[in-house]
Design a protein that fits this description.
Blueprint: E1 23-27, E2 33-37, E3 46-50, E4 53-56, H1 57-63, E5 76-78, E6 83-86, E7 98-99, E8 105-110, E9 113-118, E10 127-130, H2 142-147, H3 165-192
The protein binds S-adenosylmethionine and zinc ion (ZN).
Zinc ion (ZN) is lined by residues 101, 150, 152, 154, 157-158.
Length: 193
C-alpha cells in the first residue's frame, strides 16, 4: 500500500524550498526516524521534493508484499494510477517524514513531481508530518488494519494511516456515478447511430 498524496489545498502562497533543509532527521516517538524543524517554518513553505526511483504499481507490489510483512514499512508514494516513487532507491530526507492524522504538512503533485509544503507555521523542534491517506481497497483484513495502525496520538487520530473510511466510500460513490454517466453516454450514442 502506498501513500496517495491526494491533498491539493492551496491556502497560502507557495514559496520555493530554501537551499538548506529546514529540518533534521532523528529518532521519533511515532515510528523509527522522523523529520524535525531546526528553524521556524512559515505556512506555505515548500520544504522538500519526495524523490526516488519511479516505478509502475505492479513492480511496487512485487517488491513489497503486505501479506508477508509483520510490520509495515515502505518508502512508497503514489504519484498517479501508473507511477509510484520508491524512495528506498535514490530517496532523500523526505522519506523519513512520518504520518499524522492532524498534520502540519501536506503533499502536492505538480506535473508528476511530489513536493512537501508546510500547512501552517511550524516551530523549532516540532516533528513534520503529513497525512499518508493510503488508499483503501475496501476489503482490508484485521491484519492489514493492524499493520496500518496510526500512533500519531493527536486528538484527531483516526487510528489508521489509511485514508478515512468515509473518504474511501465517497471515492467509490463518485466512481459509480462516473460509470453510470459513461454507460448513459454510450446508450445515447447507440440510440442516435
Ligand atoms: C516512509 S516511512 C517513515 C519513516 C520511518 N519512521 C523510518 O524510520 O523509516 C513510513 C513508515 O513509518 C511508519 N509510520 C509513519 N508514521 C506513522 C504513524 N503515525 N503511526 C505508525 N507508524 C507510522 C509506518 O511503518 C510507515 O510504513
Ligand atoms: Zn493518527
Amino acid at each position: 500500500m502506498t501513500k496517495s498524496g491526494s491533498t491539493k489545498r492551496r491556502r497560502a502562497p507557495r514559496t520555493q524550498a530554501a537551499t538548506t533543509l529546514a529540518f533534521e532527521i532523528r529518532e521519533s516517538r511515532l515510528a523509527g526516524k522522523g523529520a524535525f524543524a531546526i528553524r521556524p517554518i512559515k505556512k506555505g513553505e515548500r520544504l522538500i521534493e519526495y524523490v526516488g526511483e519511479r516505478i509502475p504499481h505492479p513492480v511496487a507490489d512485487e517488491r513489497y508484499d503486505d501479506d508477508s510483512m509483520d510490520e509495515h514499512h515502505t518508502f512508497l508514494f503514489t504519484v498517479s494510477s501508473r507511477t509510484v516513487i520508491d524512495a528506498t532507491h535514490g530517496g532523500n530526507e523526505s522519506r523519513f517524514i512520518n504520518h499524522s492524522c492532524d498534520p502540519n504538512c501536506e503533499t502536492e503533485i505538480e506535473r508528476g513531481r511530489v513536493f512537501i509544503f508546510a500547512l501552517r507555521d511550524i516551530a523549532v523542534g516540532e516533528e513534520l508530518a503529513y497525512d499518508y491517506a493510503y488508499e483503501r481497497s475496501g476489503d482490508e483484513t484485521e491484519k492489514e488494519e493492524r499493520l496500518y495502525r496510526c500512533l500519531c496520538g493527536t486528538a484527531k487520530c483516526r487510528g489508521s494511516i489509511m485514508e478515512p473510511v468515509a473518504e474511501y466510500e465517497k471515492r467509490m460513490r463518485e466512481r459509480q456515478r462516473e460509470k453510470q454517466r459513461a454507460q448513459a453516454a454510450r446508450r445515447r450514442t447507440r440510440a442516435t447511430a
